[in-house]
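Hi Y.,

Following your request, here is the sequence exactly as I used it, all 331 residues.
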Amino acid sequence: MDTTETALSFAGLSPDTVLDALESVGLQGDGRLLALNSYENRVYQIGMDEGPPLIAKFYRPQRWSDAAILEEHAFVEQLVAAEIPVVPALHLAGQGSLHHFGGFCFSVFSRHGGRAPELEDSNTLEWLGRFIGRIHALGATRDFALRPTLDIDTFGRESRAYLLEHDFIPADLLPSWRTTVDQALEGVQRCFDRAGMVRLIRVHGDCHVGNVLWTDAGPHFVDFDDSRMAPAVQDLWMLLSGERSDMVRQLSDLLAGYESFCDFEPRELYLIEALRTLRLIHYAAWLARRWDDPAFPVAFPWFNTQRYWQDRILELREQIALMDEPPLWPA
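Below is the corresponding structure, written out as tokens. Let me know if you'd prefer a different format.
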């Protein structure tokens, strides 16, 4: 299935199909359906005839194999068994946690509310660090067999190749973008060389503030869809923001909690700006790969404009400089 066919199949995911899919696993919706903020997959909050609303996730066709999705589900279920606050896919109708209907594969989750964590609060950061440490302590006990690794090839070189092969960069900016992205990838390689042999473990993979919901009982982590093998610091750096002094404080608070449950290898701090650079390159390629999906031009109208690519060049130049600076060290 090419990207256009994938996009068209998502466009055909009607409310009736969503409700019929839930009925196929024994769940009767009451007709209330709210599309949630998700672009990679399609996610809905669905009112039920009995009980609280549920969340249904319809996976993007051809992104993951069934086995890779089930490997993610199994990891989350391991975390649940260890009493770590995550949200697992429900097992329904004696059919497990992954279901098929009308050409779509989907899973159903309990709805968990919450607010964004206060990342300026040291206690909040330490609390988050403790739970990320617990996730990583369990994540390190075995490897993923089917899910990919976050590395220079998968996030950097493959993304560069896709953008060049599909003519997304304007011709007048192409030489500058190509030179800049090549210099950025060289900088990423230098950071990985300085870090040396870094252990890869199962991580959340996309541990930004939007995937952490906070209640009075503390955090719970949602959406392990990007879970993969990666350095542990991948789940820490996205919680850092602001000036360098701010990030040093935030990192110190996170690690104060993290190291209560899991050892942290300081050499991984060399990777923070490298991983940020890879994410920036990968994000541009992600938008390009999804551009045939009708939801993307509506949601990201600024993508693929002249200004967009000019900003990306400047952004990568800033990262090139940051990667040659000394790494952040906790206070």
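The two ends are 51 Å apart (CA to CA).

Thanks again,
Q.
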